[in-house]
């Protein structure tokens, strides 16, 4: 693994965590949105979205080196990528409010399946992951700078 690999790994993680924060912010902003879209003349509430991360596939040369028995090539990380942004399939919350414009005949309004406490925990997790990857990036940069100073 070269020093540039560590930059790439950290950069991919920083991008993924930034997108995760954006999606969490969108969830919090739409926690009370009862009319995210209209389907067949009926209001459809906002559904919570989640970011699915997956490891980057290793390159062909990494697979080749691994199959040829080069032990140093095994286990090399190549970062993460966003596989998809999926809607949470948990049930929407029915709330009794007959005066709401989106209430059904029984007086219930379907509210988004966004739990603010869960979103805040996810936001803290994404923020800490971002900070950890930034620290790793700065450590790699510092090591590279020290290596360049040795050559002076």
TrEMBL record:
Residues 10-36 form the Flagellar basal body rod protein N-terminal domain. The keyword RNA-binding does not apply. Keywords: Bacterial flagellum, Cell projection, Cilium, Flagellum. GO terms for biological process: bacterial-type flagellum-dependent swarming motility. Transmembrane segments: none annotated. Residues 106-149 form the Flagellar basal-body/hook protein C-terminal domain. GO terms for cellular component: bacterial-type flagellum basal body, rod. It is found in: Bacterial flagellum basal body. NCBIfam families: FlgC. Belongs to the flagella basal body rod proteins family. PANTHER family: FLAGELLAR BASAL-BODY ROD PROTEIN FLGC, FLAGELLAR PROTEIN. The basal body constitutes a major portion of the flagellar organelle and consists of four rings (L,P,S, and M) mounted on a central rod. The rod consists of about 26 subunits of FlgG in the distal portion, and FlgB, FlgC and FlgF are thought to build up the proximal portion of the rod with about 6 subunits each. This is Flagellar basal-body rod protein FlgC.
């Amino acid at each position: 693994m070269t020093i540039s690999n560590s930059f790439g790994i950290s950069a991919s993680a920083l991008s993924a965590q930034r997108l995760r924060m954006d999606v969490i912010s969108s969830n919090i902003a739409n926690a009370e949105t009862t009319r995210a879209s209209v389907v067949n003349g009926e209001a459809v509430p906002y559904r919570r979205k989640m970011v699915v991360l997956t490891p980057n596939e290793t390159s062909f040369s990494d697979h080749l080196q691994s199959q040829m028995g080069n032990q140093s090539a095994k286990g090399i990380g190549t970062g993460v990528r966003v596989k998809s942004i999926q809607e949470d399939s948990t049930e929407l919350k029915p709330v009794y409010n007959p005066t709401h414009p989106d209430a059904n005949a029984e007086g219930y309004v379907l509210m988004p399946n966004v739990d603010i406490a869960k979103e805040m925990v996810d936001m803290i997790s994404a923020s800490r992951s971002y900070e950890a990857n930034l620290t790793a990036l700065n450590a790699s940069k510092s090591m590279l700078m020290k290596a360049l100073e040795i050559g002076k």
